Amino acid sequence: MGEGASTRDGIAGLDFSAITPEQFAEIVKGLSAKEIDRIARDGELRARILEEVFARMERQFKRDAAGSLQALIRWKVTSAADQAEAVYETAIADGTCTVTEGRSDATPRVTLAMGDADFLKLVSGNQSPVMMFMMRKVKITGDVAFAAGLNRYFDIPKP
């Protein structure tokens, strides 16, 4: 088996609920964009990873930092592996964070669009959001200043 198969099998065998955000960040740090794209070819595994990442968003939310913030963040994760675009929404309201899969009719304050590899690098703290924007790895529609400060509302690992 090639390197891509062993990487995919290693990720597929993980119990995501048993690893910490810091451990996840280290795993992502060790993967190249090509390896992540290979993993994303497995639609079931890709969906499992995205579901876990977005579920953790609710747990990693910094309630005190958000205060009375009211905002809807739409995430569009595109795939280089012929998988459908994944859309999730993060609603911040009244000191809570709720994540839903799919697109609502609500107007988001900001929409962030990026590929699988860039998304995982961003949410695991392995890439600077500002650098990603400047390098056009993430497309931002809406309130760019708000998007630049999103990391203050979530406890993002420091790999």
From TrEMBL:
Species this protein is from: Streptomyces aureus
Coiled-coil segments: none
Name of the molecule in the record: SCP2 sterol-binding domain-containing protein
SUPFAM superfamilies (alphabetical): SCP-like (SSF55718)
Cleavable signal peptide: none
PANTHER family reported in the protein's UniProt record: SCP2 STEROL-BINDING DOMAIN-CONTAINING PROTEIN 1, STEROL CARRIER PROTEIN 2 SCP-2 FAMILY PROTEIN
Positions of the SCP2 domain: 59-154
